[in-house]
Amino acid sequence: xxxxxxxxxxxxxxxxxxxxxxxxxxxxxxxxxxxxASLTLAGIAYLLAIREFFATPRFSRRAVVIGLxxxxxxRIEFLRVSPGADEDIYRYVWDGRxxxxxxxxxxxxxxxxxxxxxxxxETRNLNNPDLPSPYPAGAQLFFRAVTAIHESxxxxxxxxxxxxxxxxxxxxxxxxxSRRAAHLVLAYAWNPLLAVEVAGSGHIDIxxxxxxxxxxxxxxxxxxxxxxVALGLAVAVKFLPIVLLPLYWKRVRIRDAALAxxxxxxxxxxxxxxxxxxxxxxxxxxxNWRFNGPVFAALDQVAPPQLxxxxxxxxxxxxxxxxxxxAPEWSPDVLAWPxxxxxxxxxxxxxxxxxxxxxxxxSVSALLIIVWTVSIIPTYVVWHLRTLGRPWGPLPGWVMLLxxxxxxxxxxxxxxxxxxxxxxAGALSD
Length: 430
What we know:
By secondary structure, this protein is mostly helical. It has helices at residues 5-25, 33-55, 61-79, 88-100, 137-149, 153-177, 185-189, 192-200, 205-220, 224-237, 254-268, 282-288, 294-299, 305-326, 336-344, 367-375, 381-387, 397-429.
Protein backbone atom coordinates (compact mmCIF):
# COMPACT_ATOMS: atom_id res chain seq x y z
CA UNK A 1 0.00 0.00 0.00
CA UNK A 2 1.44 3.35 -1.06
CA UNK A 3 1.41 6.12 1.52
CA UNK A 4 0.14 9.38 0.04
CA UNK A 5 1.93 12.71 0.66
CA UNK A 6 -0.95 13.80 2.88
CA UNK A 7 -0.57 10.80 5.14
CA UNK A 8 3.20 11.23 5.23
CA UNK A 9 2.63 14.80 6.42
CA UNK A 10 0.17 13.56 9.06
CA UNK A 11 2.74 11.03 10.30
CA UNK A 12 5.51 13.62 10.39
CA UNK A 13 3.24 16.12 12.14
CA UNK A 14 2.33 13.55 14.79
CA UNK A 15 6.02 12.72 15.24
CA UNK A 16 6.79 16.41 15.67
CA UNK A 17 4.00 16.77 18.21
CA UNK A 18 5.17 13.81 20.29
CA UNK A 19 8.84 14.82 20.11
CA UNK A 20 8.18 18.43 21.08
CA UNK A 21 5.84 17.38 23.88
CA UNK A 22 8.65 15.25 25.33
CA UNK A 23 11.02 18.17 24.78
CA UNK A 24 8.71 20.50 26.73
CA UNK A 25 8.62 18.06 29.65
CA UNK A 26 12.44 18.27 29.80
CA UNK A 27 12.65 22.02 29.30
CA UNK A 28 14.11 22.48 32.78
CA UNK A 29 17.24 20.62 31.64
CA UNK A 30 17.73 22.42 28.35
CA UNK A 31 20.55 20.84 26.41
CA UNK A 32 20.28 17.66 28.48
CA UNK A 33 20.08 14.18 26.90
CA UNK A 34 16.28 13.90 26.74
CA UNK A 35 15.83 17.48 25.61
CA UNK A 36 18.43 17.12 22.86
CA ALA A 37 17.23 13.72 21.67
CA SER A 38 13.60 14.82 21.37
CA LEU A 39 14.43 18.18 19.80
CA THR A 40 16.77 16.52 17.30
CA LEU A 41 14.00 14.07 16.35
CA ALA A 42 11.67 17.04 15.90
CA GLY A 43 14.24 18.74 13.67
CA ILE A 44 14.62 15.67 11.46
CA ALA A 45 10.84 15.28 11.18
CA TYR A 46 10.59 18.95 10.26
CA LEU A 47 13.15 18.62 7.45
CA LEU A 48 11.34 15.57 6.08
CA ALA A 49 8.10 17.54 6.21
CA ILE A 50 9.76 20.41 4.34
CA ARG A 51 10.59 17.96 1.55
CA GLU A 52 6.92 17.01 1.33
CA PHE A 53 5.76 20.64 1.39
CA PHE A 54 8.06 21.67 -1.45
CA ALA A 55 7.54 18.52 -3.55
CA THR A 56 3.73 18.55 -3.44
CA PRO A 57 1.88 21.28 -5.39
CA ARG A 58 -1.20 21.33 -3.16
CA PHE A 59 -2.52 19.84 0.04
CA SER A 60 -6.16 19.93 1.04
CA ARG A 61 -7.48 22.64 3.33
CA ARG A 62 -8.18 19.90 5.87
CA ALA A 63 -4.49 18.92 5.92
CA VAL A 64 -3.49 22.55 6.51
CA VAL A 65 -5.99 22.92 9.36
CA ILE A 66 -4.84 19.68 11.01
CA GLY A 67 -1.23 20.81 10.64
CA LEU A 68 -1.97 24.12 12.35
CA UNK A 69 -3.90 22.38 15.14
CA UNK A 70 -0.90 20.13 15.81
CA UNK A 71 1.33 23.22 15.90
CA UNK A 72 -1.00 24.80 18.44
CA UNK A 73 -0.82 21.68 20.64
CA UNK A 74 2.94 21.74 21.06
CA ARG A 75 2.95 25.48 21.58
CA ILE A 76 0.51 25.04 24.46
CA GLU A 77 2.79 22.39 25.96
CA PHE A 78 5.72 24.81 25.96
CA LEU A 79 3.61 27.73 27.09
CA ARG A 80 2.80 25.85 30.28
CA VAL A 81 6.44 25.48 31.37
CA SER A 82 8.41 28.13 33.22
CA PRO A 83 11.28 29.88 31.42
CA GLY A 84 14.74 28.68 32.32
CA ALA A 85 17.00 30.47 34.77
CA ASP A 86 18.69 33.65 33.55
CA GLU A 87 16.40 33.92 30.52
CA ASP A 88 16.05 37.23 28.69
CA ILE A 89 12.34 37.32 29.48
CA TYR A 90 13.07 38.29 33.10
CA ARG A 91 14.87 41.36 31.76
CA TYR A 92 11.77 42.13 29.70
CA VAL A 93 9.63 42.13 32.85
CA TRP A 94 12.19 44.34 34.62
CA ASP A 95 12.36 46.84 31.77
CA GLY A 96 8.58 47.07 31.56
CA ARG A 97 8.29 47.45 35.33
CA UNK A 98 10.92 50.21 35.43
CA UNK A 99 9.10 52.24 32.80
CA UNK A 100 5.80 51.98 34.63
CA UNK A 101 7.51 53.13 37.83
CA UNK A 102 8.92 56.16 36.04
CA UNK A 103 12.53 55.00 35.56
CA UNK A 104 14.68 54.77 32.44
CA UNK A 105 15.79 51.17 31.70
CA UNK A 106 18.81 52.48 29.80
CA UNK A 107 20.13 54.13 32.96
CA UNK A 108 19.08 51.98 35.94
CA UNK A 109 21.41 49.05 36.65
CA UNK A 110 19.48 46.09 38.16
CA UNK A 111 22.26 45.18 40.62
CA UNK A 112 22.49 48.74 41.98
CA UNK A 113 21.69 48.63 45.71
CA UNK A 114 19.49 51.70 45.20
CA UNK A 115 17.29 49.62 42.84
CA UNK A 116 16.89 46.71 45.27
CA UNK A 117 13.39 47.74 46.28
CA UNK A 118 12.25 47.82 42.66
CA UNK A 119 12.67 44.09 42.14
CA UNK A 120 10.07 41.34 42.29
CA UNK A 121 10.60 37.60 42.72
CA GLU A 122 10.78 37.21 38.94
CA THR A 123 13.05 40.14 38.14
CA ARG A 124 15.68 38.89 40.58
CA ASN A 125 16.31 36.10 38.04
CA LEU A 126 17.38 38.41 35.22
CA ASN A 127 20.73 37.90 33.56
CA ASN A 128 23.63 40.35 33.37
CA PRO A 129 22.36 42.38 36.36
CA ASP A 130 25.40 44.66 36.23
CA LEU A 131 24.30 46.14 32.91
CA PRO A 132 21.39 48.39 31.89
CA SER A 133 19.05 47.23 29.14
CA PRO A 134 20.36 46.75 25.57
CA TYR A 135 16.93 46.54 23.90
CA PRO A 136 15.80 49.27 21.47
CA ALA A 137 12.85 51.58 22.12
CA GLY A 138 10.24 49.56 20.23
CA ALA A 139 10.98 46.51 22.35
CA GLN A 140 10.87 48.64 25.51
CA LEU A 141 7.43 50.00 24.74
CA PHE A 142 6.19 46.49 24.01
CA PHE A 143 7.47 45.35 27.42
CA ARG A 144 5.68 48.26 29.05
CA ALA A 145 2.41 47.56 27.26
CA VAL A 146 2.32 43.88 28.19
CA THR A 147 3.41 44.33 31.80
CA ALA A 148 0.75 47.01 32.20
CA ILE A 149 -1.81 44.28 31.56
CA HIS A 150 -0.11 41.69 33.75
CA GLU A 151 3.41 41.85 35.11
CA SER A 152 4.74 38.33 34.61
CA UNK A 153 6.83 36.20 32.31
CA UNK A 154 3.71 34.19 31.49
CA UNK A 155 1.92 37.29 30.20
CA UNK A 156 4.86 38.07 27.95
CA UNK A 157 4.98 34.51 26.66
CA UNK A 158 1.27 34.68 25.85
CA UNK A 159 1.87 37.96 24.00
CA UNK A 160 4.69 36.38 22.00
CA UNK A 161 2.55 33.37 21.08
CA UNK A 162 -0.18 35.76 19.92
CA UNK A 163 2.41 37.41 17.66
CA UNK A 164 3.36 33.93 16.43
CA UNK A 165 -0.31 33.27 15.59
CA UNK A 166 -0.55 36.64 13.85
CA UNK A 167 2.41 35.67 11.64
CA UNK A 168 0.51 32.53 10.58
CA UNK A 169 -2.51 34.64 9.60
CA UNK A 170 -0.48 37.26 7.72
CA UNK A 171 1.56 34.56 6.01
CA UNK A 172 -1.62 32.83 4.83
CA UNK A 173 -2.69 36.12 3.29
CA UNK A 174 0.70 36.58 1.62
CA UNK A 175 0.54 33.08 0.15
CA UNK A 176 -2.99 33.66 -1.10
CA UNK A 177 -2.13 36.99 -2.72
CA SER A 178 0.89 35.46 -4.46
CA ARG A 179 -1.19 32.44 -5.55
CA ARG A 180 1.00 30.01 -3.71
CA ALA A 181 -0.16 26.91 -1.85
CA ALA A 182 -1.59 27.55 1.63
CA HIS A 183 0.17 24.48 3.07
CA LEU A 184 3.50 26.36 2.84
CA VAL A 185 2.45 28.15 6.03
CA LEU A 186 3.40 24.91 7.78
CA ALA A 187 7.01 25.45 6.70
CA TYR A 188 6.86 28.29 9.21
CA ALA A 189 4.47 26.94 11.84
CA TRP A 190 6.23 23.58 12.25
CA ASN A 191 9.75 24.93 12.80
CA PRO A 192 10.88 23.61 16.23
CA LEU A 193 12.61 26.88 17.14
CA LEU A 194 9.21 28.54 17.52
CA ALA A 195 8.16 26.10 20.22
CA VAL A 196 11.38 26.42 22.20
CA GLU A 197 12.16 30.11 21.78
CA VAL A 198 8.69 31.68 21.59
CA ALA A 199 6.29 29.55 23.63
CA GLY A 200 9.06 28.16 25.84
CA SER A 201 11.67 30.83 26.58
CA GLY A 202 9.79 33.82 25.19
CA HIS A 203 11.91 36.11 23.00
CA ILE A 204 11.10 39.56 21.67
CA ASP A 205 12.47 38.63 18.22
CA ILE A 206 9.08 37.18 17.24
CA UNK A 207 7.54 40.66 17.57
CA UNK A 208 10.10 42.04 15.13
CA UNK A 209 9.52 39.12 12.76
CA UNK A 210 5.79 39.90 12.75
CA UNK A 211 6.38 43.59 11.98
CA UNK A 212 8.80 42.66 9.21
CA UNK A 213 6.27 40.28 7.64
CA UNK A 214 3.60 42.98 7.85
CA UNK A 215 6.01 45.30 6.04
CA UNK A 216 6.64 42.70 3.33
CA UNK A 217 2.92 42.03 2.92
CA UNK A 218 2.16 45.76 2.71
CA UNK A 219 4.82 46.27 0.07
CA UNK A 220 3.30 43.44 -1.96
CA UNK A 221 0.00 45.34 -1.92
CA UNK A 222 1.81 48.63 -2.70
CA UNK A 223 0.87 50.10 0.67
CA UNK A 224 4.20 51.87 0.71
CA UNK A 225 3.75 54.07 3.76
CA UNK A 226 2.61 51.09 5.83
CA UNK A 227 5.54 49.03 4.57
CA UNK A 228 8.05 51.71 5.50
CA VAL A 229 6.60 52.34 8.97
CA ALA A 230 6.38 48.61 9.73
CA LEU A 231 10.05 48.21 8.75
CA GLY A 232 10.94 51.13 11.02
CA LEU A 233 9.04 49.51 13.89
CA ALA A 234 10.86 46.21 13.26
CA VAL A 235 14.20 48.03 13.47
CA ALA A 236 12.97 49.55 16.74
CA VAL A 237 12.55 46.03 18.15
CA LYS A 238 16.08 44.95 17.20
CA PHE A 239 18.49 46.50 14.75
CA LEU A 240 18.99 43.43 12.54
CA PRO A 241 16.48 44.33 9.76
CA ILE A 242 18.29 47.60 9.06
CA VAL A 243 20.35 45.58 6.55
CA LEU A 244 17.18 45.23 4.43
CA LEU A 245 17.07 48.93 3.50
CA PRO A 246 18.44 48.40 -0.06
CA LEU A 247 15.51 46.08 -0.81
CA TYR A 248 13.15 48.99 -0.20
CA TRP A 249 15.05 51.31 -2.52
CA LYS A 250 12.62 52.84 -5.05
CA ARG A 251 9.88 50.60 -3.69
CA VAL A 252 8.88 53.19 -1.11
CA ARG A 253 8.74 56.95 -1.60
CA ILE A 254 11.01 59.46 0.13
CA ARG A 255 8.08 60.72 2.18
CA ASP A 256 7.35 57.14 3.30
CA ALA A 257 10.95 56.76 4.49
CA ALA A 258 10.74 60.13 6.26
CA LEU A 259 7.56 59.05 8.00
CA ALA A 260 9.21 55.82 9.16
CA UNK A 261 12.24 57.74 10.46
CA UNK A 262 9.94 60.15 12.30
CA UNK A 263 8.04 57.28 13.95
CA UNK A 264 11.34 55.66 14.96
CA UNK A 265 12.50 58.94 16.48
CA UNK A 266 9.26 59.37 18.42
CA UNK A 267 9.68 55.92 19.95
CA UNK A 268 12.99 57.03 21.46
CA UNK A 269 11.63 60.32 22.77
CA UNK A 270 10.57 58.96 26.20
CA UNK A 271 14.07 57.57 26.79
CA UNK A 272 16.24 60.54 25.83
CA UNK A 273 18.91 61.31 28.39
CA UNK A 274 20.08 64.92 28.27
CA UNK A 275 19.16 65.00 24.60
CA UNK A 276 21.18 61.90 23.74
CA UNK A 277 19.74 58.78 22.11
CA UNK A 278 20.32 55.96 24.61
CA UNK A 279 21.87 52.63 23.65
CA UNK A 280 22.10 51.05 27.11
CA UNK A 281 24.51 48.11 27.18
CA UNK A 282 24.56 47.60 23.40
CA UNK A 283 28.20 48.67 23.23
CA UNK A 284 29.11 46.12 25.90
CA UNK A 285 27.31 43.45 23.87
CA UNK A 286 29.46 44.15 20.80
CA UNK A 287 32.62 44.40 22.87
CA ASN A 288 32.27 41.29 25.02
CA TRP A 289 29.48 38.87 24.07
CA ARG A 290 30.56 35.94 21.91
CA PHE A 291 28.54 32.88 20.96
CA ASN A 292 28.44 30.73 17.86
CA GLY A 293 29.86 33.38 15.53
CA PRO A 294 32.56 31.64 13.44
CA VAL A 295 33.41 34.55 11.14
CA PHE A 296 33.56 37.07 13.97
CA ALA A 297 35.69 34.69 16.08
CA ALA A 298 38.13 34.15 13.21
CA LEU A 299 38.63 37.89 12.69
CA ASP A 300 38.43 38.96 16.34
CA GLN A 301 42.17 38.62 16.78
CA VAL A 302 43.06 40.96 13.94
CA ALA A 303 40.39 43.69 14.07
CA PRO A 304 38.52 45.60 16.79
CA PRO A 305 35.01 44.32 17.59
CA GLN A 306 33.33 47.58 16.60
CA LEU A 307 34.83 47.30 13.11
CA UNK A 308 33.75 43.67 12.84
CA UNK A 309 30.21 44.55 13.93
CA UNK A 310 30.18 47.16 11.18
CA UNK A 311 31.42 44.50 8.78
CA UNK A 312 28.47 42.27 9.71
CA UNK A 313 26.08 45.10 8.88
CA UNK A 314 27.96 45.81 5.64
CA UNK A 315 27.72 42.16 4.55
CA UNK A 316 23.97 42.27 5.05
CA UNK A 317 23.63 45.54 3.14
CA UNK A 318 25.74 44.27 0.24
CA UNK A 319 23.67 41.08 0.08
CA UNK A 320 20.47 43.10 0.04
CA UNK A 321 21.86 45.42 -2.66
CA UNK A 322 22.79 42.48 -4.86
CA UNK A 323 19.36 40.90 -4.41
CA UNK A 324 17.68 44.22 -5.24
CA UNK A 325 19.48 44.39 -8.58
CA UNK A 326 19.25 40.66 -9.34
CA ALA A 327 15.52 40.31 -8.58
CA PRO A 328 13.62 43.48 -9.53
CA GLU A 329 10.26 41.82 -8.82
CA TRP A 330 9.23 41.99 -5.17
CA SER A 331 9.21 38.73 -3.23
CA PRO A 332 9.13 38.46 0.59
CA ASP A 333 11.37 35.40 0.39
CA VAL A 334 14.46 37.53 -0.33
CA LEU A 335 14.29 39.18 3.10
CA ALA A 336 15.81 36.16 4.80
CA TRP A 337 19.14 36.20 2.98
CA PRO A 338 20.57 39.62 3.96
CA UNK A 339 19.69 38.98 7.61
CA UNK A 340 21.19 35.48 7.47
CA UNK A 341 24.39 36.85 5.92
CA UNK A 342 24.64 39.52 8.60
CA UNK A 343 24.01 37.03 11.40
CA UNK A 344 26.69 34.73 10.05
CA UNK A 345 29.21 37.53 10.66
CA UNK A 346 27.77 38.66 14.01
CA UNK A 347 29.56 38.28 17.38
CA UNK A 348 26.75 36.09 18.72
CA UNK A 349 24.28 33.84 16.93
CA UNK A 350 21.81 32.54 19.49
CA UNK A 351 19.08 30.17 18.23
CA UNK A 352 16.34 32.75 18.79
CA UNK A 353 18.04 35.19 16.43
CA UNK A 354 16.92 32.93 13.59
CA UNK A 355 13.28 33.66 14.47
CA UNK A 356 13.64 36.75 12.26
CA UNK A 357 14.16 34.50 9.24
CA UNK A 358 11.36 31.97 9.73
CA UNK A 359 8.41 33.79 8.09
CA UNK A 360 10.42 34.04 4.85
CA UNK A 361 11.44 30.38 4.49
CA UNK A 362 8.57 29.15 2.35
CA SER A 363 10.39 28.29 -0.89
CA VAL A 364 13.13 25.99 -2.12
CA SER A 365 15.40 29.01 -2.54
CA ALA A 366 15.62 29.25 1.27
CA LEU A 367 16.52 25.60 1.80
CA LEU A 368 20.01 26.32 3.16
CA ILE A 369 18.64 28.65 5.81
CA ILE A 370 15.99 26.07 6.70
CA VAL A 371 18.77 23.54 7.28
CA TRP A 372 20.54 26.09 9.49
CA THR A 373 17.46 26.51 11.69
CA VAL A 374 17.74 22.79 12.47
CA SER A 375 21.53 22.39 12.53
CA ILE A 376 21.72 25.12 15.21
CA ILE A 377 20.00 22.75 17.67
CA PRO A 378 23.30 21.30 19.04
CA THR A 379 24.18 24.74 20.48
CA TYR A 380 21.67 24.09 23.28
CA VAL A 381 24.19 21.72 24.85
CA VAL A 382 25.91 24.81 26.34
CA TRP A 383 22.93 25.37 28.65
CA HIS A 384 23.29 21.83 29.99
CA LEU A 385 27.06 22.18 30.45
CA ARG A 386 26.45 25.27 32.54
CA THR A 387 24.23 23.29 34.91
CA LEU A 388 27.15 20.89 35.35
CA GLY A 389 29.27 23.74 36.68
CA ARG A 390 31.13 24.69 33.53
CA PRO A 391 31.45 28.43 32.90
CA TRP A 392 29.59 30.07 30.04
CA GLY A 393 32.05 30.27 27.22
CA PRO A 394 32.81 29.30 23.63
CA LEU A 395 30.94 26.42 22.07
CA PRO A 396 32.68 23.04 21.98
CA GLY A 397 34.39 22.59 18.63
CA TRP A 398 32.25 19.62 17.65
CA VAL A 399 29.07 21.68 18.03
CA MET A 400 30.11 24.35 15.55
CA LEU A 401 31.52 21.69 13.23
CA LEU A 402 28.18 19.88 13.27
CA UNK A 403 26.11 23.05 12.92
CA UNK A 404 27.95 24.66 10.02
CA UNK A 405 29.12 21.34 8.58
CA UNK A 406 25.50 20.36 7.96
CA UNK A 407 24.94 23.62 6.12
CA UNK A 408 28.12 23.05 4.07
CA UNK A 409 26.97 19.54 3.16
CA UNK A 410 23.61 20.95 2.10
CA UNK A 411 25.43 23.49 -0.10
CA UNK A 412 27.42 20.68 -1.75
CA UNK A 413 24.33 18.52 -2.34
CA UNK A 414 22.38 21.40 -3.89
CA UNK A 415 25.34 22.40 -6.06
CA UNK A 416 25.84 18.83 -7.32
CA UNK A 417 22.14 18.37 -8.05
CA UNK A 418 21.95 21.62 -9.98
CA UNK A 419 25.07 20.62 -11.93
CA UNK A 420 23.45 17.33 -12.90
CA UNK A 421 20.25 19.10 -13.87
CA UNK A 422 22.21 21.46 -16.13
CA UNK A 423 24.04 18.53 -17.71
CA UNK A 424 20.75 16.71 -18.25
CA ALA A 425 19.17 19.81 -19.78
CA GLY A 426 22.20 20.25 -22.05
CA ALA A 427 22.04 16.63 -23.16
CA LEU A 428 18.35 16.99 -24.04
CA SER A 429 19.02 20.16 -26.03
CA ASP A 430 21.71 18.36 -28.05
